[in-house]
Write a structure and sequence with these properties.
Helix content: 25-40%
Strand content: under 5%
Oligomer: single chain
Number of helices: 4
Distance between the termini: 95 Å
Radius of gyration: 38 Å
Shape: elongated
Largest sheet: 2 strands, antiparallel
Number of strands: 2
Structural class: mainly alpha
Length: 157
């Protein structure tokens, strides 16, 4: 087995090129000759411009081809969906990707939770969530209980 592999590799061997050897590009087409005088920055700018033009041209040609196919399908009496099924482009409406749009009645912010505690002196309220209100911190430091400030006190049994 090893001998057969060795013979096959010897038969198909090509001379190894030196990596330091200058690789000469093929003849430059005439329409690209003006690029020879550009510096690196200008060449990158030209590439960027060319890539943008490619994207524009592709989009235009795709739209044109799509229109031709749809026209031909109509002339033959077919709907494009009949010919291509689920692959057919949608005729109208937004893309069906992503989140569903919010209903018109929905508010953009959450409703704040109801107040659970009230300061009898000022009427200031706190929901009992998150960091304690300053007035309740002071009251607790004085030895008072939060239960004293409950808005709806539990019924005594």
């Amino acid at each position: 087995m090893a001998r057969a592999a060795k013979k096959a590799s010897e038969a198909s061997e090509e001379p190894v090129r030196d990596i330091n050897e200058d690789v000469q590009p093929e003849e430059t087409p005439a329409f690209l000759k003006p690029l020879d005088g550009l510096n690196v920055g200008q060449l990158r700018q030209a590439i960027s411009y060319a890539e943008a033009r490619i994207r524009q041209r592709e989009a235009s040609e795709k739209a044109s081809a799509r229109d031709e196919l749809m026209k031909l399908a109509q002339e033959k009496g077919f709907a494009i969906h009949d010919l291509f099924g689920d692959m057919a482009p949608r005729q109208a409406g937004p893309a069906k990707r992503g989140r569903k749009p919010k209903s018109e009645g929905a508010s953009s912010e959450r409703a704040s939770p109801p107040a659970k505690y009230r300061n009898p002196a000022t009427g200031e309220e706190w929901s009992g969530r998150g960091r304690a209100a300053k007035w309740i911190q002071v009251a607790e430091a004085e030895g008072k209980s939060r239960d004293e400030f409950l808005i709806e006190k539990p019924a005594a049994e």
